[in-house]
Amino acid sequence: MNADSANGVPNEAAEAAAATEAARKLFAGPCDFVAGSTHVDSLPEPTLIEVAFAGRSNVGKSSLVNALTGRKTLARTSQTPGRTQQINFFDLGHRLMLVDLPGYGYSRAGKGKAKSWNRLIDLYLKGRARLRRVLVLVDVRRGIGPGDREAMDKLDAAAVSYQIILTKADKAGGKATEVAQAAAEAIRARPAAHPDIIVTSARDGIGIEELRTLLAALAPPEQLG
User: Would you say the C-alpha torsion 61, 64, 69, 74 has a positive or negative sign?
Assistant: First the structure.
């Protein structure tokens, strides 16, 4: 632990810098695709701490995963809403499992297929003992919508911790702070919601360092095993 030489008080700035650097190294290391599951029976065993990325279709989940890991094609991105049709698992340094969930709110495959995906997501959320947090991605240009509120209702009911991540801040036109404040107010009374809102841009790197540090802290090395 770093400490101030005069009074022995921990140097919070130095500790924060060390945590940020450790997170950078974690996300710069190996990150491998593990599985793409379309049925609950094909979900991989939960051997690592897991963090899931959720949000309406085309909100930027795959782009954010790529930005966090410094890769361009780790997670597939698409301009077509509803394209991701499975739960994708990525092993980050044998320490953290990044889970890319299918988008909600739109599906080119039709209502029947979307219902099947939603059931798979529900089963995943309720049955993963090592799931530490769900990142609910919200397009900063739209703010929290009906689909997001429905997802948060399910997470509250399942007592699964979640956190709002605003995406596409580079397209916000200066309104990111206002939208973040509105989002914070919208989740204030929700029991499973983390109070901190993180504003990000996969294109410009806004919030990426902060989010890496947060995720790394959810799976510290000493808690593995």
Answer: positive
Tokens representing residue 99 in the block: 């889970």
pTM score, two decimals? Answer: 0.87
Residue range 181-193, pLDDT digits in tens: 999 999 999 999 9
Residue with tokens 């049955």: 127
Strands 87-92 and 96-100: what pairing? antiparallel
Q: Do residues 123 and 137 touch, judged by C-beta distance below 8 A?
A: no
Residue-range domains of the chain with CATH:
12-223 (3.40.50.300)
Tens of pLDDT, residues 54-111: 999 889 998 999 999 998 777 654 444 444 578 999 999 999 999 999 888 655 555 6
User: Which three-class secondary structure string do you get for 134-165?
Assistant: EEEEEECCCCCCHHHHHHHHHHHHHCCCEEEE
Q: Is 56 helix (H, G, I), strand (E, B) or coil?
A: strand
Distance separating alpha carbons of residues 194 and 45, to the nearest angstrom: 26
